[in-house]
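User: Hey, my collaborator sent me this sequence without any context and asked if I could get a structure. I don't really work with proteins. Can you help?
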Amino acid sequence: MVLGLDTRRPCDELIEFAFGSARRRDARLHVIHVISASSELTEDSRPEPVSGVPVVETVAEGRVTAELVRASTGASLAVVGRRTRDGRPGSHIGRVTHAVLHHVGCPVAVVPHD
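Assistant: No problem. I've predicted the 3D structure and written it out in C-alpha cell form, which is a compact way to encode the shape of the chain:
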C-alpha cells in the first residue's frame, strides 16, 4: 500500500485511513513525500507508526505525480487526499489526485479532508 503525504500539511483523516487500511489487509505501508530541491523535511512532520503496521518512508525529489505513480507500481492500494473547500459547489480534485486516478495500475482511495 502507498500513501502520498504532503508533510507541509499533514492530515489526520488521510493518515488514519491509510494505516487502518494497511492494518486490515495485514500489509506494509509505503509513505512517500515528494519534495523540490528547496524543500525541507522536518522530523516533526513524519507520520507516527501505528502498532502492527510496518512502514517504509521515502522522501523523493522530483515531480509529485511521477513519483507517486512510480511508487504505486505493484501496490494493492494507493491513498491520496482531496481537500474540501467551503463555498465551492461539487466535487473537485487537485492535479495530483487526478493524475494518480488516471495513471496508477492499482485501486485508489481518495480521502476528503479539511
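In plain terms: The chain has one domain: 2-113. You can pass these C-alpha cells on to your collaborator as they are.
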